[in-house]
Design brief:
The chain is α/β, with parallel strands linked by helices. Helices cover 38% and strands 18% of the residues. Helix 17 crosses helix 18. The N terminus is likely disordered.
């Protein structure tokens, strides 16, 4: 039976090889138009402009960059380009995100001074390197001594040390240090050398100054400076030898009521539906890969699609194509919760966050699927297009010949080697994909990046070829989604079937056959978000699934699980713990920490009004291929969410 099923599947899929064009849904002429028009150099020129600004949410630098983007969008022919503004004052909520007030700095310096008070060595300067001032610092003018307090987050770090009125040197993030150092023991401020974003290259460059944060909503205010590991070690050595180090810290900065200013523009379609290209505009200066690269590439996609459509080299979209440039995660919360009518129109999102890292960054480029709890054919479209770019760029790197090499004149020539991976969290795609919005999202991103969130994340490390290739994958995916309709159903089914066989092979190795069969059925069901599939295609898909079930050994549907059935409330929308804000903690709910962030995210997405808590646990175990997801941990977490009013109990 399995052999017959495999033979049937093979014959069905062989038909896809007879198509005249290289990619489904796009003719070779359209592929050539996109490949020849998209420019890595154009994207990088805009990236260099964005990188000049310190782009914190609500800040003057952020708004200046957003206005620059609006001007460019208009110049590219998107006449409706404008800023959408959503008030942000620290009290307003957008879904599950408390809005954070704007933060602006005018001046900040940290000097070592001699006995007379004269400046000797400058360790930090807002004007020279804004990243040296921790986010959400407040004004101060202090001359005092420096005390080494190790990590700075434990009571033992302060044993037998008097830090009142002094500066604390600490290895942890300022926000974690401040409750003890400042609130409890009275320190005047913090000097941090926190080493965040740990990868294989962590700690190898002691000259990096990393982005620091204070807690936005802390009941007490303070300031913090960031220094390199090399600087911190030199200071520690001097202090260890009994030297007194006096510092003069001056800060002119404050939180204030502001707004999330989101640049947006559209290429109009003929229906009321929309496809969104998303990126986050904020992050510290220079922030070239994170995330000027995603914003510059999205802007280049807007230019490319607008130009090709105007020149009639591409047909107009059926669905409106929208471009948005919010502050990371919190701006997307504001956009979707503040404009619910817009959220209802969005059929899919393509999110770009770090897409330009050259070889020196050690970046691996990812085409990332959405959550396994939310199957969608859009992930297979992105993978199909990404695989073409891999093949073409590899052929060019290996032989010097390829039809679509996607090589920028000022960029590299190496193969892209994109990795096609399951869900990872950490950017705006997780807001779109949350069950309360249920907008499937393609996520394009670099990871690792040895310079993320440091003063070395500079335009010189950005590869125009990489920008062009990321832009092509995103542009082609978004354009296909803007055009696809019922006439494409059979082609789409062939694409999903091809990838389903690959997933089935993995499922056979992992032993997750029942979940795999559910997933593939849901993949075909996802067509309905875009169109009603013709009856003949539905029948063919049903036959494919029957044969796939045989390949998987006809797994039996699992017995009905025990436990509570919850339904996610849509009164408050969005994921719960994103970007420095935890909804449960803010509402006095103790959140069990036995489940990591991705398990918590998927657990909530799996809550659909039909699954019991034990069925949620079983699905999590299948998604992550781990047997030790404990039912008690899942039940405790979901009960905590329910106690905050975000889940409704259906039964028992």
């Amino acid at each position: 039976m399995i052999r017959i099923a495999i033979a049937t599947l093979s014959l069905a899929l062989a038909a896809t090889q007879l198509a005249a064009d290289t990619l489904p849904f796009l003719t070779d002429k359209e592929v050539s138009a996109l490949a020849s028009e998209i420019s890595g150099e154009s994207a990088k020129r805009n990236l260099e402009g964005f990188s000049r600004q310190h782009r914190m949410r609500g800040s003057r630098g952020f708004r200046a960059t957003a206005e620059q983007i609006v001007a460019e969008l208009k110049r590219y022919g998107l006449a409706d380009a404008h800023l959408e503004s959503f008030p942000a004052d620290g009290t307003l909520f957008y879904g599950t995100q408390r809005s954070r007030p704007a933060w602006n700095a005018n001046f900040a310096e940290l000097w070592e001074v001699d006995a007379s008070g004269a400046n000797v060595v400058r360790y930090a300067s807002w004007d020279a390197e804004p990243i040296t001032l921790a986010q959400d610092s407040t004004s101060a003018d202090v001359t005092t001594t420096l005390v080494d307090c190790g990590e700075g987050t434990h009571e033992s770090d302060y044993a037998n040390k008097d830090v009142r009125g002094k500066l604390v040197l600490a290895s942890a993030q300022p926000g974690a240090v401040a409750p003890l150092a400042v609130a409890k023991y009275g320190a005047a401020g913090i000097v941090s050398y926190a080493q965040n974003q740990k990868t294989a290259w962590w700690g190898e460059d002691e000259n990096l100054v990393r982005w620091g944060h204070l807690e936005t909503f802390a009941p007490f205010k303070t300031f913090a400076f960031m220094v390199s590991l090399k600087t911190a070690r030199a200071l520690q050595q001097r202090l260890a030898h009994g030297e007194t180090i006096r510092m003069h810290a001056v800060v002119d900065a404050a939180q204030e009521p502001g707004a999330y200013d989101i640049a947006t523009a559209t290429i109009p379609g003929t229906t009321n539906e929309e496809i969104v290209f998303s990126c986050h505009l904020d992050h510290p200066h220079p922030g070239a890969n994170d995330n000027a690269s995603g914003c510059a590439t999205t802007l280049e996609i807007a230019r490319t699609l607008s130009k090709l459509i105007a020149e009639k080299r591409l047909a107009p979209p059926r669905r409106t194509i929208r471009f948005v440039y919010p502050p990371e995660i919190e701006g997307t919360h504001a956009l979707l919760a503040g404009r619910p009518e817009l959220a209802a129109r969005i059929k899919a999102a393509i999110h770009l966050d770090m897409v330009g890292g050259g070889p020196v960054t050690k970046a691996i480029f990812h085409v990332t699927r959405g959550p396994s709890s939310q199957p969608s054919f859009i992930y297979d479209i992105a993978q199909t297009i990404g695989m073409l770019v891999n093949e073409q760029s590899d052929a060019f790197a290996s032989t010097g010949v390829a039809r679509w090499p996607l090589v920028a004149p000022e960029g590299g020539k190496e193969a892209l080697q994109a990795s096609f991976v399951p869900l990872t969290l950490g950017s705006d795609h997780q807001v779109y994909s949350d069950r309360t919005y249920a907008i499937p999202a393609i996520y394009l991103n670099d990871w690792p990046d040895r310079y993320i969130h440091t003063n070395f994340d500079v335009p010189a490390n950005i590869d125009p070829t990489k920008l062009a290739r990321a832009g092509f994958i995103a542009a082609a995916s978004g354009y296909v989604l803007a055009r696809i309709d019922a006439s494409d159903a059979r082609t789409l089914a062939n694409v999903v079937e091809t990838h389903a066989l690959e997933r089935a092979a993995t499922s056979l190795r992992k032993g997750t056959r029942s979940f795999e069969l559910w997933y593939e059925r849901a993949m075909f069901d996802s067509f309905a978000r875009f169109f009603d599939a013709p009856s003949d295609v539905r029948k063919e898909s049903a036959a494919f699934l029957t044969n796939l079930a045989a390949v998987l050994g006809n797994p039996k549907a699992p017995a009905r699980g025990s436990g509570v059935v919850y339904r996610r409330s849509t009164k408050v929308r969005g994921p719960l713990d994103t970007f420095g804000y935890d909804y449960l903690a803010d509402h006095g709910v103790t959140q069990p920490l036995q489940l990591d962030a991705e398990l918590r995210y998927e657990a909530l997405n799996l809550v659909d009004g039909t699954r019991t808590t034990s069925e949620v646990r079983d699905a999590l175990a299948a998604i992550y291929s781990v047997d030790d997801v404990k039912l008690a941990d899942v039940e405790a977490y979901l009960a905590a969410v329910a106690s905050a009013g975000l889940l409704d109990k259906v039964s028992p």
